[in-house]
Amino acid sequence: MKRLVGALAVAGVLATPQAWALNILLSNDDGYQHANIRALYSALTAAGHTVAIAAPQSDQSARGGAFYFGREVHVGQDTDPAFPHSYYVSTQESGLCESAGCSGKTVAIEISGTPVMAVLMGLKKVMPHPNLVIVGPNPGNNVGAINAASGTFNAASVAVQAGIPSLAVSTDLKEQDPQRAAQLLTRLVATLDRHRQPDGRLLPAATGLNVNLPAANPAKGMRLTRIGQYTGFEAAWTDDLAKLFPQQAGKPGISFRYSAPAGPAQQNDEAVWLAKGYVTVSAFNGAPASTVVGSALGNQLRPALLSQEAQ
Prior knowledge:
- The protein contains 7 helices and 12 strands.
- By secondary structure, it is α/β, with parallel strands linked by helices.
- It has 2 domains: 244 residues, Stationary-phase Survival Protein Sure Homolog, Chain: A (3-Layer(aba) Sandwich); 30 residues, no CATH class.
- Helix 2 packs across helix 5.
- The longest helix is centred in the middle third of the chain and has 17 residues.
């Protein structure tokens, strides 16, 4: 980790050219045709890398780690000749129709596969042994506790668990320039390539990076942070969606609200530095959870565990 910190902290290091051509698999939770993933594909290809896309068919935001299992999955290919190595996943959903035109009939409709499904397919069928997986850039920052619901973050975690270095990348929700993130990521990839780990890896084993771009343009700099818990915003029920979704005025549903200010223990959380205008880079670990139980928790649970063993 110290080597990673040093590589990212060197002033001007993101301006250095790439050292070697890499095999890079791209995915997202917004669909294979989204402008952000296409801009990144073009930028990385222009930099000399071999790039492929394996993504959902359509927008799958906030799907977290969801996937459909035990049903047939269709793999489709992008028809745009500018993206010859771009693929998507879809499946079918069946149910009883309630609309007037088909009421009472069982119908099947094509639906998009999830981000996790796209990465699993991509690592098997599209690019089995990439040097790097990049998921995003997602329109809308994924920080702190909200990462649990993020399709971007969870898809990147799947790659890390498979032993592949991975970046989960998000921008401000109102970001209008796909090239901004594409160019920054192309430089970041070059940095990781030129400052590899002693064993040759782009990142430490079982490690991914959660990268968030701020609304500030240009950004004030890059900050190595921790994911933490703080988000700055949180999902919440509302009886009127109009505040953020005017077309849904008067209708109830799930929206977002600002959370309380960060406390003293949260000052190095990525959301805090993102709000200050910095690009944040937070490491996350894809290794299986530890089986070691803390002594305090062990003491707390021991009576119950012993009781169960005695039965």
